[in-house]
């Protein structure tokens, strides 16, 4: 699955917590969220005054204080990020309730990271058939 297909799939399943998501869908959507947040933070720093760029010894430092655009983007992405994380866990044959382990400081995040990098379970599992990993058709 490529970058744009993953984004379209995640928005199509905006609040879809059923089914499975392959590793590529999860990581591409995470990259989309990171890039979107960074771009909005840069726009807010440059044009809206939320943040600062300063000259420091050896280079430049940028500090973003978070503004309305970044906050609204993050708020809008909470549900699809949770949904794709749950579907990714389903792809491994695990319940979405495993997300709650992230409440355990440090250890919980490491456990989830370990799960997220694992290859998918081949074939169908209790959460549905294996996701389609074939490339999209050419136009």
TrEMBL record:
The chain crosses the membrane at residues 26-48, 68-86, 98-117. InterPro entries: DUF805. The keyword Protease does not apply. Signal peptide: none annotated. It holds the Pfam family DUF805. The keyword Membrane applies. Keywords: Membrane, Transmembrane, Transmembrane helix. This is DUF805 domain-containing protein.
